[in-house]
Amino acid sequence: MNIYVTGIGVVSAIGLNVRENIAALRSCQHGMGAVSLFATGLDVPVAEVKRSNDELKQLLELDAKRTYSRTALLGILAAREAASDAGIAVDRLRIGLISSTSVGGMDRSEEFYKTFKTDHSRGRLRNVIAHDCGASTEQIAADLGVQGMVTTISTACSSAANAIMLGARLIRQGRLDAVVVGGTDALCRFTLNGFQALMILDKEHCRPFDESRAGLNLGEGAGYLVLQAESTLRRTPYCQLSGWANTNDAYHQTGSSPDGEGAYLSMSQALATARITPQEVGYINVHGTGTPSNDASEGRAIQRLFGNCPPLFSSVKPFIGHTLGASEGIEAVYSVLSAQQGYVYPNLNFACPIEELGLRPVTEFQEHLPLRHVLSNSFGFGGNNSSLVFSRLTDQ
Question: Helix 18-26 and helix 327-341: axis angle, to 10°?
Answer without folding.
Answer: 70
